[in-house]
Amino acid sequence: MEWRDVVPYGLFKDDYRGFRHSIDKCIIVYPFSIPDRFESFCSSFSLLSGFIYQPDKSLDGWNCYFDKPACSSYSWYASSFWFPHCNVKYGAYYRNMNLSTKKPVWEKRQYLRIEFNPNKVYSDPCFSALMSCVSDYCLCGVLEEVDYAVDVPASTSHVITQSLKDKVIYNDSRYYGKRHKHGRIKVYNKGKELLDKDKIHIESALSRCEITCKYQMSLDFSSVSFCSSSLTDDNNLSSNLRSICDLIILASSYGEDREELLRRFVPDKRNRDKLLPYLFGTAECVFDLVFFALLLSEYAKLYNFYFYFAGSPVIASCHNVLDLVGGWYLCSRS
Questions:
Q1: Residue 207 pairs with which residues in a beta bridge?
Q2: Average pLDDT value for residue range 216-243
Q3: What DSSP character marks residue 208?
Q4: In this structure, is residue 75 part of a structural domain?
Q5: Is 222 exposed, middle or buried (0-12, 13-18, 19+ CB in 10 A)?
Q6: Are the C-beta atoms of residues 223 and 162 closer than 8 Å to each other?
Q7: Which has more pLDDT, 100 or 147?
Q8: Could you point out which of 17, 35, 82, 147 has its C-alpha 20 to 30 Å from the C-alpha of 204?
Q9: In a domain? residue 244
Q10: What is the domain count for the chain?
Q11: Tens digits of per-residue pLDDT, 253-306?
Q12: Mean pLDDT of the chain, nearest integer
């Protein structure tokens, strides 16, 4: 079965290599146009979508929490409800210090925080009803966090990640950095995930690369590369490096990670750079700034939000793709 037919996508872009670029997760914060309208918002959403609130039901139900105190365990939000692949929170609490009593006080902000997976809710009528209510009750939103995903029709061994963040390896999946932190990278076997979760078997290998991007942070997409070629014979390598190459290839045939073995056996970066083309072939960057900008711009028009990422490379590139994307959201938060 062809993977393009079974993997869910909302908006996507295909490049010349056959890689598919998409947005895997968004967190958008919308301020209410008039304060204290969350109850009315929920009523409108329920009427429009047929959504039934079941307070304090079960973890996998459609739950709703109203008027929770600031010190509740529910992530410092007053209210919340969710449905598949979408989580809505309202009333973020912020801690301030009362100067007269010297005691902390909690201030509730009139914000609506929506976390969702665009690839899975793109055609969901319940989510369409939610965004219709957002357009009626809320002002323009701000993109707080986004996961940029690229599907690569190859095994994870062809993906090289040069990151200094903390690394966690689980089978053939690699994770760099902490959850919800800017620059977190995930490289995992998408085909195995489809088989384990959805019982769908695809014929070819498929890897997914994801990077988390946070509002106002600078972007660096250069740490994840794809190499299609395998080891080639060459007499220019020293006998020592040639032996290390053979050892790494032998160990990787038993499931060991080539990149990890290369770092362990070759501490010198100059020698590692010599071995890279022999072990992995010519490296190409997986992520692409232009595709990322195109996808975000289309989603921004669809869901009424703006986004901003700092750093001269992004700002310089936005002028080049301005005509292509039909506008770039680079406003600072008001």
A1: 152, 189
A2: 73
A3: E
A4: no
A5: exposed
A6: yes
A7: 147
A8: 147
A9: yes
A10: 1
A11: 556 777 888 888 888 888 888 787 777 666 788 999 989 999 999 999 999 998
A12: 80
